[in-house]
């Protein structure tokens, strides 16, 4: 096989794996949007907040240490424990559920029946609040996150492909793990929404609030549930990206990459988020590989958005979005 | 006799344990009682000091011209609106103000004037949502899908299939609701409400916008539901012929007030009712 083709295959694989992570972030948006009509601008900050909390809990940091020390003249910094990744993740998941409850009860419960733009503005406020809260609780410095996921080049793939084609594929172990975990999470979410009682209730709420109430579904319960799931999805995304490039503010920007994914897949479709994520992931890597050198590179910064723009012109509801047909 | 006196007489009568109708159905004791309900939206009085009751096993109609407050009354019963004054009594005790989902969990199901179905789901899924409150297993049990959770799903599914057969919508079980014509949507909505095995079923204009044939079908389903499942039904309907045929007792509303209450025959001969329908000038 010619080298160029092999290289393209490697790029394609990396693109697919990046795509699964995009899909994961996009799923967080889709879940909340479907169930409550809220476009959650804070999804990225939730991932950042989750990752910060995870690092803080694992390293036994005292939350609000600066604030406490300034107010009481104490010198607290750490509790002095080191927790394993698994326990840290479980405790952080609990924190995200508490946060979901607080977000619903303090903010969105009071905004029922408001215009979508009002809800959107509220999530912008929420994003800045959570960013500040995260910094206040755990400090604004860049943190290293290591929950025990393997990193570095996968030797087996390297040698196997080298033996077969004479060219070793460079695939990062972390990417493989991230892909597997994200895929499991996505499948689990789809099964949950299709076959469980709560999933059926969730779909009902997403479809019609009034009808959901009339069959005895508590909207508040479902909203706390979706915000919790979105929080958990954010946690997983935060772990993947945080492990890769450190827990820092730029982590919250990955959510912006989910926007073109949503435009492709449609805001209301879970399969759409997955396929959209894969298309964007593969598309931007292949584009950079094939066209990038001709235009001076760095196409990954804009390719996804331009592709989404093209899609908007021809298929505004996305690939799988529900088409709006109204009887007249 | 004033309406207040009439009501006192009614409530005294209500202490009795019920009677058997001409067609052999058993009408029981009072299950739901509205006492002096007043509902306002800002300065607009939608319902003014209305009292009436619903007996176990009966078909109770609420009629009146457009804007009379009928739908508002149904919304008070189902917890979508909360009256400023008055009390709602259910099964012998006063009901605290409740959210609609809590009312539903007490065994009161309803349909809506402008159909409220889950458009994206199939007919079967829609009807299954009516069973949500009968599913007691938790997520963990469901995730591993055995024993209790499985039996529960099977049992609920069987009941739903029974309702689907009953309403003759087997052919469209797997069809997404958004593709159905209006008349069938109304039927699916009734199926979902019946799937909840309600003690009290509230129907808001179940026959609005239907042709004669569809109306006959719907009437048959309402009567059969009442007969076979013993469901107590309160309905709002515009078609006088249908109302008089279906219902055991009728409440007549006009401009938010109650102007008549009794059997179809009594109501038909009530001068206030005739005036309201023929449009006599109000003083």
From TrEMBL, chain A:
Belongs to the binding-protein-dependent transport system permease family. LivHM subfamily. This is Branched-chain amino acid ABC transporter permease. GO terms for cellular component: plasma membrane. CDD domains: TM_PBP1_LivH_like (cd06582). The chain crosses the membrane at residues 12-32, 39-58, 78-104, 116-140, 176-196, 217-241, 261-282, 294-314. Pfam families: BPD_transp_2. The keyword Transport applies. It is found in: Cell membrane. One of its GO terms (molecular function) is transmembrane transporter activity. It comes from the Bacteria. Signal peptide: none annotated. It is a multi-pass membrane protein. One of its GO terms (biological process) is amino acid transport. It comes from Pseudooceanicola spongiae. InterPro entries: ABC_transp_permease, BCAA_transport_permease. Keywords: Amino-acid transport, Cell membrane, Membrane, Transmembrane, Transmembrane helix, Transport.
């Amino acid at each position: 096989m010619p080298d160029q083709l092999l290289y393209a295959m490697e790029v394609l694989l990396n693109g697919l794996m990046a795509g699964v992570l995009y899909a994961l972030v996009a799923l967080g948006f889709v879940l909340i949007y479907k169930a409550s009509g809220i476009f959650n601008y804070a999804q990225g900050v939730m991932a950042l907040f989750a990752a910060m909390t995870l690092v803080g809990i694992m390293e036994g940091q005292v939350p609000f240490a600066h604030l406490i020390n300034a107010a009481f003249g104490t010198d607290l910094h750490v509790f002095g424990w080191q927790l394993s990744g698994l326990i840290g993740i479980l405790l952080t998941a609990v924190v995200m559920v508490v946060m979901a409850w607080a977000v619903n009860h303090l903010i969105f419960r009071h905004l029922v029946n408001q215009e979508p733009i009002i809800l959107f503005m509220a999530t912008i406020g929420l994003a800045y609040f959570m960013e500040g809260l995260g910094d206040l609780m755990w400090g604004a410095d860049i943190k290293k996150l290591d929950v025990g996921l393997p990193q570095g080049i996968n030797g087996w793939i390297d040698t196997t492909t080298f033996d077969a084609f004479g060219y070793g594929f460079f695939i990062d172990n972390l990417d493989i793990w991230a892909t597997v975990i994200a895929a499991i999470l996505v499948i689990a979410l789809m099964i949950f929404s299709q076959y469980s009682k709560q999933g059926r209730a969730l779909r009902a709420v997403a479809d019609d609030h009034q009808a959901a109430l009339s069959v005895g579904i508590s909207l508040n319960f479902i909203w706390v549930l979706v915000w919790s799931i979105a929080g958990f999805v954010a946690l997983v995304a935060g772990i993947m990206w945080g492990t890769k490039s450190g827990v820092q503010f730029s982590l919250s920007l990955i959510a912006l990459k989910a926007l073109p994914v949503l435009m492709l897949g449609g805001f209301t479709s879970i399969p759409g988020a997955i396929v959209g994520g894969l298309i964007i992931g593969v598309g931007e890597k292949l584009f950079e590989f094939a066209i990038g050198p001709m235009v001076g590179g760095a196409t990954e910064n804009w390719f996804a958005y331009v592709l989404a723009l093209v899609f908007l012109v021809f298929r505004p509801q996305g690939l799988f979005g529900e088409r709006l047909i109204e009887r007249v | 006799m004033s309406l207040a006196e009439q009501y006192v007489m009614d409530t005294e009568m209500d202490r009795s344990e019920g009677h058997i109708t001409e067609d052999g159905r058993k009408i029981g004791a009072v299950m739901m009682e509205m006492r002096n309900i007043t509902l306002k939206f800002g300065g607009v009085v939608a319902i003014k000091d209305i009292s009436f009751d619903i007996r176990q096993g009966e078909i109770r109609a609420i009629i009146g011209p457009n804007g009379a407050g009928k739908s508002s009354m149904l919304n008070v019963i189902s917890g979508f609106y909360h009256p400023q004054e008055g009390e709602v009594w259910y099964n012998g005790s006063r009901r605290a103000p409740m959210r609609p989902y809590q009312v539903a969990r007490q065994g009161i199901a309803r349909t809506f004037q402008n159909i409220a179905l889950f458009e994206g789901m199939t007919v079967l899924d829609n009807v299954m949502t009516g069973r949500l409150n009968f599913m007691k297993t938790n997520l963990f049990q469901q995730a591993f899908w055995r024993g209790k959770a499985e039996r529960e799903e099977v049992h609920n599914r069987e009941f739903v299939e029974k309702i689907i057969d009953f309403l003759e919508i087997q052919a469209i079980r797997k069809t997404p609701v958004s593709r159905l014509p209006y008349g069938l949507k109304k039927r699916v909505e009734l199926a979902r409400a019946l799937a909840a095995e309600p003690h009290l079923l509230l129907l808001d204009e179940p026959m609005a916008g239907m042709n004669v044939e569809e109306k006959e079908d719907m009437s048959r389903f309402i009567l059969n539901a009442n007969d076979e499942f013993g469901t107590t039904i309160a309905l709002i309907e515009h078609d006088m012929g249908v109302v008089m045929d279906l219902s055991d007792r009728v409440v007549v509303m006009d401009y938010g007030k109650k102007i008549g209450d009794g059997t179809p025959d009594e109501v038909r001969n009530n001068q206030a009712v005739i005036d309201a329908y023929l449009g006599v000038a109000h003083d």
